[in-house]
Amino acid sequence: MLRTLSGRFLILTIIFVMLAEVLIFVPSIARFREDYMLSRLERAQIASLALLADDMIDPDLEEELLRNAEVYNVVLRRDEARQLILQSPVPQPINATYDLRDAPALTLIRDAMARLAEPEPRVIRVIGNPVREAGLLIEVTMDTAGLRAAMIDYGLRILVLSAVISIFTATLLFVSVRALLVKPIKGVVSAMQTYAANPEDARRILTPTARVTELREAEEALAKMETELTSALKQKERLAQLGSAVAKISHDLRNILTSAQLFTDRIEASEDPGVRRMAPKLVNSITRAINLTEATLAFGKAEEPPPQLARVPLGDIVEDVLDSERLAIGDDVDISMSLDVPTDMVVRADPEQLHRVVSNLVRNARQALMHLGKGGEISVHAFEEEDAWVIEVSDTGPGLPEKAQANLFTPFQGGARKGGSGLGLAIAAELIRGHGGRLTLQRTGPDGTVFRILLPMGHAA
């Protein structure tokens, strides 16, 4: 029972109610003690009226009056004169004096607790105000045995009543908690277990039914998470199938490109100046295509291969990328490309992977401008910071849509244009992370987009 939520709630409720009853018990027992002593003062005052009416009373009558009042003697102060009205032998010396006139609450509570803790009977003096202002004060001496016995009896009745109230309240709360919380929570747990048995079955997704606001929010959040997980599992399956297909295509494409590479020797032997000028770029493009297909085959088995870091001139890599993209522009769109890289700037990177990253960013910018159909400018700017090399690729295009920004580096979700897969940016970000750096989107909007590549000079950024 202690392991269940409802069982622990039941026990805690009983404990807390009992603590509340204790807080009520302490002042109530103090109040009972005060009322007890005040009643003895009132009885003593009534008994003294007989003597005030007749100066001489029979000793037996006096003893009966004191016995009914449960006191040993009565002193009444009237007109500044202190007068012993009724008296009888006191069995022991007076142990303490208690003045009930305007006594502070804390003092009454302290005295009451002290009296409960003192088992030995004592004789005490009690001082108070006479009823109906029949004098300045009245004081009596009395035994504490009857007072303590009455206090214990009253306290036991209070404790029994408190226990009954605690159990009754706890039972009601126990039943309420089981109906309002425990049962719905068990339903959610059962739904989670059912879904976990086959998360790809959309029929097992939880349907929110709770009426309690907090539980309803929890069910809705769980249902949303299960829906996203089911979609992600289906996408993962599709990606696995796509990866298998891409690996097969890459294998055959590598063989085709290897054959095409054999024909470049004849092209280089051509006497045509234009052909001789374009032949090296064709050879480089085919070589990179072969490397890409081999990397794709490797990616099907593991992650991107680790970069082969070397000191490479950044300007040559960027210039090669811009030359290739200029050939793809054509004459229909006026797109200019500019290079702002220090001629002596040498970075520590894998030349092939860095070429792929810069080429991907420039190609995305060029495709965005061509889709816009109004021309524009693409710029590659590089500079050094204290401990890193920074490469920025900017364009004057229309900016990235919000959906692309939200999933920018997520495969198949962060496509920057309609029909795009988003693989390019995801691969580029992974390649830069392999260098210990990072690829980020600096800004985007109607006036253009800027991507930043950060390559650390020393340890990973």
List the helices and strands and how they pair.
Layout: H1 5-53, H2 59-69, E1 73-78, E2 81-86, E3 94-99, H3 105-117, E4 123-128, E5 137-143, H4 144-197, H5 213-268, H6 273-301, E6 310-313, H7 314-329, E7 335-340, E8 346-349, H8 351-372, E9 376-384, E10 388-395, H9 402-406, H10 423-434, E11 438-445, E12 448-456
Helix pairs in contact: 1-2, 1-3, 1-4, 5-6, 7-8, 8-10
Keywords: Kinase, Transferase
Protein name: HAMP domain-containing histidine kinase
Organism: Lutimaribacter degradans
Account of the 3D structure:
Among the domains are: about 5-170, no CATH class; about 305-455, 2-Layer Sandwich (Heat Shock Protein 90), CATH 3.30.565.10. It has helices at about 5-55, 60-70, 105-115, 145-195, 215-270, 275-300, 315-330, 350-370, 400-405, 425-435; strands at about 75-80, 80-85, 95-100, 125-130, 135-145, 310-315, 335-340, 345-350, 375-385, 390-395, 440-445, 450-455. The chain contains ten helices and twelve strands. The chain is rod-shaped, with a radius of gyration of 48 Å. The longest helix is centred in the middle third of the chain and has 56 residues, at about 215-270. Helix content is about 60%, strand content about 15%. The strands form three sheets. It has a five-stranded mixed beta sheet. A five-stranded mixed beta sheet has the order 7-9-10-12-11. A two-stranded antiparallel sheet has the order 6-8. It comes from Lutimaribacter degradans. Keywords: Kinase, Transferase. This is HAMP domain-containing histidine kinase.
